[in-house]
Amino acid sequence: MISSFFSKGAYNLDGYHFKNEFTKSSDAVLLDVRTKPEYAPGALPSAIYIDFLGSAFSLELAKLDKSKRYFLYCRSGKRSSSAVSEMRKLGVEAFNLVGGIGTWPK
């Protein structure tokens, strides 16, 4: 059960469990919620970019397929944690990468 993988509260996963759950889930979507300057050097493979601080963030969330499982990351894990909270309020299953992109296992 996924709840056994939580590292710092509900829906927050450490790098290993985040990548494992994302990789094994057939309905998983990886979301990069960093700012443009943070995103510019590159993103994780297959990640969809939605700037958490952008004016269209709420509109982009509303367009998401609620039948999918979303795995979010940012630079440090704080914005993605906030985004996950917003998504869960909308009834979307979402998980945060604790510590941000730097904790994604190689």
UniProtKB/TrEMBL annotation:
Segments forming domain Rhodanese: 24-105
InterPro entries registered for this protein in UniProt: GlpE_sulfurtransferase (IPR050229), Rhodanese-like_dom (IPR001763), Rhodanese-like_dom_sf (IPR036873)
Pfam families attached to this UniProt entry: Rhodanese
Protein name (database record): Rhodanese-like domain-containing protein
